[in-house]
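URGENT: need a sanity check before tomorrow's submission.

F., can you look over the glucose-6-phosphate 1-epimerase record below? I want to be sure the sequence and structure line up before it goes out.
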Amino acid sequence: SKDWNGVDQVMLRNPQGASARVSLHGGQVTSWRNEHGEELLFTSSKAIFKPPKAIRGGIPICFPLFGNGGSLEQHGFARNKIWAIDDNPPPLHPNDSHGKSFIDLILRPSEEDLKCWPHSFEFRLRVSLATDGDLNLISRVRNVNCKPFSFSFAYHTYFSVSDISEVRIEGLETLDYLDNLCQRERFTEQGNAITFESEVDRVYLSAPNAIAILDHEKKRTYVIRKDGLPDIVVWNPWDKKSKSMGDFGDEEYKQMVCVDAAAIVRPITLKPGEEWTGRVQLKVVPSSFCSDH
Ligand code: BG6
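Structure tokens as predicted:
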């Protein structure tokens, strides 16, 4: 089907009625619903579905840069581009076949991209919806150039929550983080789960491979499992920054939290011919499940 701007999008469904929607704009997942039809990802009511602007919500792919610096736009160009469907992707490991509902996309740099980032690459993204409703994203970046290059990366995931002040993140306790609100100064998280009462914009270093977002009010827990992605970004713009973003509602910060599986602090370097893989698995479970098991 097409989105509001005529860009192709692909629907994935599983037999239980869960679904995911992937737009060729950004190779971006723009919806993920459980078997009851409840939306699990946040998208702003003010989101602009028009390239070259990224869609505010879902799972933008930040590549080849997370953050800003040099001649690249903030969070890189991948999220602003129209990706292609990859009809014949190189085989993935058998463990990466999560059922039949998947789509393979590919991004190659345009002439214009090569002007600000002169490295030829092939970026393959597989999005799959498992029979149990889990959402799996696998990114493969290959260096098809004759020189090495380095990049940073994030699955900038906007989770839908009922009330940010009732949300806790578990799994990042005692880790070091860089605080974007203090010139990326390094701090150490204390022993408690992360809660929100003001703007948060951090990169947690060397996070464990599974972390959880607990939505107390919805009695829902998101579990993020990651592989090849050492860092975790946690972002909530809170009230003041929300007002400064044209494609974000003033009060919408209450209904979202970004928790990104990422590779930022130590960029990935690929030699010619080398390939990197970064995987994330998103699962949603009733909160009682977590405390009982
Ligand atoms: C976060 C950054 O991850 O993304 C923030 O750390 C930034 O500083 C936010 O504001 C949103 O970025 P953008 O480019 O999508 O507005």
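My own read: DSSP finds three helices and 19 strands in the chain. The longest helix spans residues 238-244. If you see anything odd, call me.
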